[in-house]
């Protein structure tokens, strides 16, 4: 949902009311039977404003903590192909779409990736997906047949491929896409994709 300036203020007052504490303080204000205009500084309205303010402060602190955690994660480094078969380390936030990333054993990886090759002869690797689906067992992923022979850094020297895929969506178990490499097209490579959140 998109939150704009017109939605923000009412939602800040309505969300805390949904709690039992907020509802208990709002009911006396609504049931007030004065035929004259309600005073602006009535105790129930003040308590509702305090409750809204506390709720906003709590969410601001949570957002700040999440921002700081994201900053810490984005400072992690990963090996990126810089050209001519050479790899160098870059921080996660400096990685762009199309970069070739070398994922090392027992390390986190920064984004959704397509497995091009593996150090195992059959091109398989094992990925833990606990951050995505809560399962701690390892998932088997297999490299594409057309890129399976990329077993050393130097083999990426002249590598150029095009990936055409669907727009981002919340589905973890379906993927539509094609990899075009040396006039060959590989399609429906869900089992070759690393997903990361």
Question: Explain this structure to me?
Answer:
One of its GO terms (molecular function) is ATPase-coupled intramembrane lipid transporter activity. InterPro entries: ATPase_P-typ_transduc_dom_A_sf. It comes from Dendrobium catenatum. By secondary structure, the protein is of the alpha+beta class. It folds into two domains: 5-31 and 42-74; 108-194, no CATH class. It has four helices and ten strands. Strand 8 and strand 9 form a beta hairpin. Helix 1 crosses helix 3 and helix 2 (20-30) packs antiparallel against helix 3.
User: Strands of the biggest beta sheet: in what spatial order?
Assistant: 2-1-3
Low-confidence regions: none
Secondary structure tally: strands: 10
Distance separating the two termini: 20 Å
* Fraction of residues in helix: 25-40%
Name the quaternary structure: single chain
Number of domains: 2
Q: Mean pLDDT across all residues, rounded?
A: 75
User: Rg from C-alpha positions?
Assistant: 26 Å
Class per helix and strand makeup = alpha+beta
* Number of continuous helical runs: 4
Give the overall silhouette.
Answer: elongated
Hey, roughly how much beta strand do the residues contain? 15-25%
Order of helices and strands: HHHEEEEEHEEEEE
- Tell me about the largest β-sheet: 3 strands, antiparallel
Protein name: Phospholipid-transporting ATPase 7
GO biological process, one term: phospholipid translocation
GO molecular function, one term: ATPase-coupled intramembrane lipid transporter activity
InterPro entries: ATPase_P-typ_transduc_dom_A_sf
């Amino acid at each position: 949902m998109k939150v704009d300036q017109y939605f923000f203020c009412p939602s800040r007052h309505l969300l805390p009311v949904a709690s039992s504490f907020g509802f208990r303080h709002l009911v006396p204000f609504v049931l007030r039977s004065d035929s004259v205009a309600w005073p602006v500084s009535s105790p129930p309205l003040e308590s509702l404003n305090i409750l809204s303010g506390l709720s906003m402060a709590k969410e601001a602190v949570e957002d700040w903590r999440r921002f700081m955690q994201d900053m810490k994660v984005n400072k992690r480094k990963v090996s990126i192909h810089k050209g001519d078969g050479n790899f160098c380390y870059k921080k996660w936030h400096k990685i762009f779409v199309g970069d070739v990333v070398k994922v090392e054993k027992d390390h986190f990886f920064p984004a959704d990736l397509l497995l091009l090759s593996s150090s195992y002869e059959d091109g398989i690797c094992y990925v833990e997906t606990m951050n995505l689906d809560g399962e701690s067992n390892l998932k088997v992923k297999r490299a594409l047949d057309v890129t399976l022979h990329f077993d050393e850094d130097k083999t990426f020297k002249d590598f150029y491929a095009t990936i055409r895929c669907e727009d981002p969506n919340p589905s973890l178990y379906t993927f539509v896409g094609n990899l075009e490499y040396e006039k060959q097209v590989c399609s429906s490579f869900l089992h070759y994709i690393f997903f990361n959140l």
